Write the C-alpha cells for this entry.
Amino acid sequence: MSEILTDYSPAALAHASTANHWQFYNLYARQPEVKAHEHGGMAWIASQLPVTYLNQVMITNMSDDEAEAQIATMIDYYRVRGVAQFVWRAWPSVQPVDLGERLLAHGFTTRPPAPSMGADLHQLPPSWPTTTGVSIARVKDSASLTSWAGVVRGVYDTSEAFADFLIRAFSGEVGNPNAAVRHYVAWVEGQAVACATLFLGAGVAGIYRVATLTQWRGRGIGGAVVLAALREARDVGYCFAMLRSSEMAHHLYQQLGFRDEFSAASYLSPLLT
C-alpha cells in the first residue's frame, strides 16, 4: 500500500491525482499492445489498439525553449506508429504554462472539460438509495472479470477484441485480496448492469471505468457501485478519493461527497493517418 496522502492542498491533490492516473495507465502496459514511456520530463503511452485514451501524453514538464520541438516530436512519434489521433493532457502543473495555446496552434482541438473531483472517505453517505434486487460484489474470478469487461464494452461501445484486452490486462489481480486495482460489478437477477474500478496508488484512491448499461440508468445503481469501491478504499486505510467526471455524472458524484478540486484540460490531435 502506498503512503497515504494527508496533505489536501490543491498542489498536493493535483500531484497525487496525476501520479495515480499515470500508475493506473501503466497497468495496461503490462500487455504487449501498450507501451509506457518516461523521458525528459515527459510521460506517455502508445498502443496498437484503436483506442484514443491508450494513446496519450499524460505528463509534460519541459522548458519554453524545448516545447515546439517536443510537440513536433510527439506528433511524429504517434504518426509513424499508425495512430490516427492521440490525446495530450494538461494537468495544473504542466510546463510550459501556455502548452494549450501551443497545441491549438498545431491543430489540436480542446476536448470537453472533465473536472477532477475529490472526496473525503470519512464523509461518505451512510446509505444510498437504489432499486431493489441489486447486489454488488468485487471481481474475484475470471467469470466476473469477463462480466465487468462486458459492461465496459456495452457502455463505451468498444470491440470484442478490446474487451478481451481488458480481461488480459487485469487478470493477474483476480483472486488477490490486496491488489492495488480492484473491480466491482452490480448485479440484478444474475445480469451484470454496472461497474467501477478502484486503483490504490500515489496515496489516494482513484476511481475509473464507472459504467451503467443504458437501460439501468437512473436507478441509483451507478452510485451504489462507486460507493462500494469507496468504502473498501476507506476500510483499507485510504483517506481521500479522486476521479475525473463527465458532465453527465457530475451531480451524482457530488451526492457521493465529491467536490471539484481542479480542472485538467485535454487536447485531441489532428488526424495523423
In short: The longest helix spans residues 10-26. The mean pLDDT is 95.
